[in-house]
């Protein structure tokens, strides 16, 4: 399979802040890749490198075998603008025209607007659109140039359930037609609905790069905590730590862990089971002090 | 590439026409000044009316260049639309060129009400050839003011640009003799005036419109200002690029 975009050992600093730390990633033709991670994980920096807005501090970024800072290379990509910045006084159709002027073979305007449920709004000024309509327009703009590879940054944030499903359908049909997608989201649900491959970033590094199923199991880690004098030795714990006089255990199977805890006869009180955030789950998995495996 | 520039120019013009504050601000003040001061006081004196008309036309153009351009550039930099446009396969140039062309169009439109008032209500006269030469004579000395607008726009926030451009604009216009003829300015302003950029622009326009002899020092200083402001604008542009896009 052809690699459309890749980073090789890319590091990006902003002053003292290390946003990306030696990241190597390949996006291959026909893939629908979900990029998952908490705020500040490096998702936006990674996308900004791929679309040519930023240059790496060290390492190489390739787009279609060339450099993303070369405008000709960027003819093959589509990007979503933030819907808050769309020019307010322009009409929907006029914005599509401006963007289309940059591409050698743009999509037909009416067909594109129809695909995103905007056909009735072509003559409406952006300033008069609802938040959801702006969001749909912003996503539609990524597809104006008939791209081979689209970068969709939080495409459904702020959309109601129905509009979200419609947009997912659009992304799926673009992918079914041979398109390649890199999609970012805070939500595992969205990635699960669309992606086949999931890349999890945190702290500027790639924490996991796997199938949706594999990542779902990893992210499903729960946090089990209780008061106990000694941390008991139990199977299925991926990481254990002490928080004051509480023992904190991370496990993929909290039911099993509680049964083992009770059977083990260790005295304990104040049992709590809580879901972990993505960040916690991945920190638990990647931390070096993992007690038990 | 030229079709992309055209697309950007068209959309920036549409924005200006639909929210015509800049257009009105640039053209109304000089036209009202024409009606309030030039028509009653010097409207009967052909030479004085002609130079006053040229001055106020440039005043309108200068407002588009300094105030309009600086605010537009500073506002663009704050909008997330700007980085999006940078991801399109053309880079920053077409949008920049479109911004300059749209500003030029606004500047020329801003001069028309003054010209109309002069033609209808004063003895101001000029020949068709001089009128035709007047437009390049208006655009060429606008260049340093556009560079000033770019400099402010690249250095300041939108709010800062609104304030600074106005604070600079009026003193520059007064020192240059655009609002009051230099001959009746106070002595110390007369002494400083030829060193300020608007005076050189005015001298050029008066020469083209009314056939006066331009002040050589003022013209040389206009050239000096153009070079200095080009360097400042280029420095500010690179600094802004370095902060936002590297």
Automatic annotation (TrEMBL), chain A:
Transmembrane segments: none annotated. GO terms for molecular function: ATP binding; ATP hydrolysis activity. Residues 5-228 form the ABC transporter domain. GO terms for biological process: response to antibiotic. The keyword Transport applies. GO terms for cellular component: plasma membrane. It is found in: Cell membrane. It holds the Pfam family ABC_tran. The keyword Ligase does not apply. Keywords: Antibiotic resistance, ATP-binding, Nucleotide-binding, Transport. Its main location: membrane. This is ABC-2 type transport system ATP-binding protein. The lineage of its organism: Bacteria, Bacillati, Actinomycetota, Actinomycetes, Streptosporangiales.
Automatic annotation (TrEMBL), chain B:
One of its GO terms (cellular component) is ATP-binding cassette (ABC) transporter complex. This is ABC-2 type transport system permease protein. Pfam families: ABC2_membrane (PF01061). GO terms for molecular function: ABC-type transporter activity. The keyword Protein biosynthesis does not apply. Keywords: Antibiotic resistance, Membrane, Transmembrane, Transmembrane helix. InterPro entries: ABC2_TM, ABC_2_transport, Nod_factor_ABC_transporter.
């Amino acid at each position: 399979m052809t690699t459309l975009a890749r980073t090789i050992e890319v590091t990006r600093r902003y002053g003292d802040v290390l946003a990306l730390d030696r990241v190597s990633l390949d996006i291959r033709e026909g893939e629908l890749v979900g990029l998952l991670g908490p705020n500040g994980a490096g998702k936006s920096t990674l996308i900004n490198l791929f679309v040519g807005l930023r240059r790496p501090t060290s390492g190489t970024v390739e787009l279609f075998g060339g450099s993303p800072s070369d405008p000709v290379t960027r003819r093959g990509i589509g990007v979503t603008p933030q819907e808050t910045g769309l020019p307010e006084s322009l009409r929907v159709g006029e914005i599509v025209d401006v963007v289309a002027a940059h591409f050698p073979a743009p999509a037909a305007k009416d067909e594109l607007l129809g695909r995103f449920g905007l056909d009735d709004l072509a003559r409406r000024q952006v300033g008069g659109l609802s938040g959801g309509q702006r969001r749909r327009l912003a996503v539609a703009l990524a597809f104006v140039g008939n791209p081979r590879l689209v970068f969709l940054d939080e495409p459904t944030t702020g959309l109601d359930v129905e509009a979200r499903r419609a947009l997912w359908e659009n992304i799926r049909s673009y992918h079914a037609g041979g398109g390649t997608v890199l999609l970012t989201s805070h939500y595992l649900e969205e990635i699960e609905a669309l992606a086949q491959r999931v890349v999890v970033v945190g702290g500027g590094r790639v924490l996991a790069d796997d199938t949706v199923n594999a990542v779902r199991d990893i992210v499903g880690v729960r946090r089990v905590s209780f008061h106990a004098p000694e941390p008991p030795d139990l199977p299925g714990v991926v990481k254990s730590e002490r928080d004051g006089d509480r023992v904190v255990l991370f496990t993929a199977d909290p039911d099993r862990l509680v049964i083992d805890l009770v059977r083990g006869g260790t005295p304990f009180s104040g049992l709590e089971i809580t879901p972990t955030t993505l960040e916690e789950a991945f920190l638990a998995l990647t931390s070096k002090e993992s007690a038990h495996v | 590439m030229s079709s992309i520039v055209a697309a950007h120019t068209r959309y920036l013009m549409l924005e200006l026409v639909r929210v015509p504050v800049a257009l009105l601000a640039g053209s109304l003040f000089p036209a009202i000044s024409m009606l309030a001061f030039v028509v009653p006081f010097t409207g009967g004196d052909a030479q004085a009316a002609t130079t006053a008309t040229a001055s106020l036309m440039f005043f309108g153009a200068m407002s588009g260049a300094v105030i309009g351009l600086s605010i537009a550039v500073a506002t663009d930099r704050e909008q997330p639309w700007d980085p999006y446009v940078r991801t399109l396969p053309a880079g920053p140039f077409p949008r920049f060129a479109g911004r300059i062309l749209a500003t030029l169009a606004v500047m020329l439109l801003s001069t028309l009400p003054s010209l109309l008032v002069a033609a209808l209500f004063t003895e101001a006269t000029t020949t068709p050839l001089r009128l035709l030469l007047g437009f390049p004579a208006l655009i060429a000395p606008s260049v340093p003011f556009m560079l000033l607008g770019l400099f402010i726009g690249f250095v300041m926030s939108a709010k800062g640009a609104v304030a600074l451009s106005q604070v600079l604009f009026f003193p520059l216009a007064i020192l240059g003799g655009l609002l009051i003829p230099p001959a009746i300015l106070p002595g110390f302003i007369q002494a400083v005036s030829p060193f300020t950029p608007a005076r050189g622009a005015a001298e050029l326009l008066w020469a083209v419109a009314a056939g006066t002899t331009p002040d050589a020092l003022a013209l040389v200083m206009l050239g000096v200002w153009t070079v200095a402001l080009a360097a400042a604008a280029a420095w500010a542009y690179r600094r802004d690029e370095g902060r936002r896009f590297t």
